[in-house]
Amino acid sequence: MSRIGPESLVRELDSAGLLPAGFGLLLCEVLRDRFTSDLVWVDGKPLSKREHPTAWWTAVYSNTSVVTQYDDGFTSWPEVGDRASCSLSMPSVVVGMLALLDVQPGHCVMEIGAGSGFNTALLSKLVGRDGEVVSLEVDPDLAGTARQNLRHSGYKTTEVQVFTKDGAHGLPNWGQPFDRVISTAAVQLGHVPYTWVEQTQPGGVIVTPVRAALTSGPLVRFVVNNDGTATGRMASMGAAFMELRSQRVAWADDELIDESAGDVSQRSTEHDPWLMFGQFAPRWALAVALPSCEYDLREREYLRLMDPVSGSWAVVRPDDRGGCVVRQYGVRRLWDDAEAAFGWWLDRGKPAGADWEWTITPDSQTIRLASE
After folding, report:
1. Is the pLDDT of residue 85 over 50?
2. 124 among known catalytic residues
3. Sequence-separated (6 or more) residues with CB below 8 Å from residue 343
4. What family does the Swiss-Prot or TrEMBL record give for this protein (predicted)?
5. Which of 81, 104, 230, 241 could share a disulfide with 75, CB 3.0–4.6 Å?
């Protein structure tokens, strides 16, 4: 049996085609275990290094995300909380994002979300001695942990600094524009902080996950233009990330749906909800059209749409004729809007995620098909 460690992680990523060129050595230089606490959660279950050392080491050095905090620290290990609030992302996602960022020696980089400090350490290695990394962490406890992990791993404050600040505001008084900005927390669709653009020099790159209520996962790479705007395209890879804490949206309550309400409308549809919502490309088009709408899909049983902003909902179930029955309630007819957005997507040749283009200006943010 091969030894568990950074080399085995590199082999795993390489054999799966998930290791960008040049990142194998980086993962061997920055040891993930030094940034992983002894008490963690993996796959929704508590894991102790002392009680289950082999499982702990296996999780640390495999392509697995490791949760280090639930509910902003208000849920203590081994209890499993409602919302993961800090984790070490899957290594394949970490190196994939860094490859998108294209960090060069000597760069000045701002990171949003220090977490454990692991990604911060990787950035420090990439910029080298002539570069600089500043990381903004809104949670004081996490910021302290990141500083401690970095210090114990030999990183000096002259090389990397962790500030306890809300990353949504950036670091306006830093004194020089950043070459690169990377966020390890997702921003809501249409709400990329303009401060990130403002604090990045022309030609600089911003990489951030973007989410909407219907879907999470798109990674968007922005390039800052000379006129103070930024243009972005979705990367081929994606992953689910926790939101910026200042942009969190309350989840819809299942009790929002009351099918016994007297003014519920009902109709039939020939559209397949599993085709519409079960794949990323059409679901992303629907997410753009229905930014506050959430969904619950159980294949061949039901689709539930809920919009906590308007209080509207829709339930779609298969009937015995090969179609579906739609029941809707509220000021928004969510299924009607979803069908319209799906038709728009079909009419344009089923565009993929990479076909969308973002534009950020000081006053607005737009997303559209690049071909239009």
Report:
1. yes
2. no
3. none
4. Belongs to the methyltransferase superfamily. L-isoaspartyl/D-aspartyl protein methyltransferase family.
5. 81
